[in-house]
Write the structure tokens for this entry.
Amino acid sequence: MAGPVDSAPWAACGDDAPMAFVAINVLTVPAGAGETLESRFAARAGSVESADGFERFELLRPVEGTDDYLVYTRWRSRADFDAWTASQEFAAGHAASTNRPQGAAPAAAGSTIWAFEVVAQADPA
């Protein structure tokens, strides 16, 4: 039987601890467009890393169970994420992604944002 929560290998974030925020953009990518999507993200590298409160970015390629790509970003707080999405840097980075060659199809056919507060986390021992 498992012990009390505080003896678990992960840490619960208390009410007084700042709550990290995770935004996951679920991208519906048409068959054969994954490489294009990855190239377009590679071209935008560096566009979010200097944002205040930014902690991590990952572009996740599907392996099985779905064809959707996930764009994972972790922030110090929801306010930091909201400030970034309202920034000129965000607008410029996303405008650049629409500057594709004439006649080229979009790399993603749809997008859904999932938002989470981090309530427990673990790091390597």
Remarks:
- Residues 85 and 91 are 8 Å apart (CA to CA).
- Strands lie at 11-12, 21-28, 54-60, 69-75, 110-117, 120-121.
- The chain has three helices and six strands.
